[in-house]
Amino acid sequence: MANRRSFIRYSSAAAFSALLLKNNAIASVLNKKNITAGLQLFTFFGVIDADVPGTLQKIAGIGYKEIESAYGLKGGYYGMKPKEFAALVSSNGMSWKSQHVLAVPFVMPAGTKMPTMPDGKPMVMPKVNNLRDNQQQIVDELAEGGVPYMVCAYTPTSTLDEIKTSIGILNKAGEAAKKAGITFAYHNHDMEFKAIDGKVPYDLLLSETSADNVKMELDLAWVTKAGIDAVELFKKNPGRFPLWHVKDISADKKTILPVGEGIVPFKHIFANKDVAGMKHYFVEHDEPKDPYASITTSFGNLSKIV
After folding, report:
1. Is the separation of the CB atoms in 127 and 154 below 8 Å?
2. In sequence order, which residues have a C-beta less than 8 Å from that of residue 294 and are 6 or more positions away?
3. Which of 76, 115, 138, 140 has its CA 20 to 30 A from that of 98?
4. Within the chain, how many helices (H) and strands (E) appear?
């Protein structure tokens, strides 16, 4: 029995060491290509809050070097103040590059309910600040944490009135962020590419927000689902896409997948990163069954794609 336990321990350690060596080799390839892999922590929504330090340590162990944060179940920055969270990220050899924020207060869509937690009780979300009501507080906190990018993760765009209101919020946020030395950007889903009264919301967001103050974080899976050529967007708006979300989607466009497992034409898109003005990208997977397995697969495939 003792020999069996020793064998299992040795085998597990050897497997882990082999994984680290493989990931280090991949990271070396990416670094030579001047591409540093980042991760959007929404991938770990509902998971990270149970052990924030342990989660970040494992993410760093896979090879990720940059972090984009989102909201969690503890409030604030995963239960911490900006400087605390920045220090924790840094202690794991990573840098905190960006934070996702909301344009308006979060409201569950009509007819939907909050998901349940492992104990069977409905998930309870803490108050999440938003750009409409708490703009300056958000900007000040990110400046305190030394975060160079602030990204609006969602704003209503289902009517022309909502789009007009959203454009006003985004322009004001862009101005406030710029004064604090922070670059502001907007993150898309696929809904912004569905025409409203003959007008495409994303086109309006691009044309009616300040190109200097409001940049774009292009989500490569959602833009693919919408049937839009990301490279054509880059060519029409060169330099306006400093941030990307790198994730994949299935052929039927119904399921988000790890990078390299679906139909997103990553090689074509990455070949045009200079046209886009891309500075950082963040791997993301919405609600994966196993976030660690997903981001490990994505990291492994990146060196073949980039």
Report:
1. no
2. 43, 258, 285, 288
3. 115
4. 11, 10
Question: Is the Cβ–Cβ distance between 70 and 42 less than 8 Å?
Answer: yes
What are the residues whose beta carbons fall under 8 Å from the beta carbon of 5, sequence distance 6 or more?
A: none
User: In a 3-state reduction of DSSP, which class is residue 299?
Assistant: helix
> Between 201-208 and 160-179, two packed helices, what is the crossing angle to 10 degrees?
40
Which two tokens mark 60?
Answer: 């760093």
Locate 94 and state its tokens: 């990573």
* Residue 2, φ and ψ in degrees, nearest 5: -60, -40
Torsion, Cα of 283, 228, 169, 280 (10° steps): 30
Who's near 198: CB < 8 A, 6+ residues apart? none
Query: What is the biggest distance separating any 2 CA atoms in the chain, rounded to whole angstroms?
Result: 72
The burial class, CB within 10 Å (0-12 / 13-18 / 19+), for 75 is middle
Q: DSSP secondary-structure letter at 247? A: -
Helix intervals (H) in 33-152: 52-62, 82-91, 131-145
Identify whether the C-beta of residue 277 lies closer than 8 Å to the C-beta of residue 239: yes
Which value, to the nearest 10 degrees, does the dihedral of the CA atoms of residues 284, 287, 290, 294 take? -20
Say what the pLDDT of residue 197 is.
96
Tell me the per-residue pLDDT of 248-278, one tens digit each, with 9 for 90 and over.
Answer: 999 999 999 999 999 999 999 999 999 999 9
Q: Residue 222 in 3-state DSSP? A: helix
Yes or no: say if 224 and 250 are a contact pair by the CB < 8 Å rule. Answer: no
- Asked if residue 153 lies in contact with residue 101, where contact means CB atoms within 8 angstroms, the answer is yes
Question: What would the CATH number be for the domain defined by 36-305?
Answer: 3.20.20.150
Provide the pairing of β-strand 66-69 with 95-102.
parallel
Q: What φ, ψ does residue 91 adopt, rounded to 5°?
A: -65, -15
State the average pLDDT over residues 159-167.
98
33 is written with which tokens?
A: 């290509």
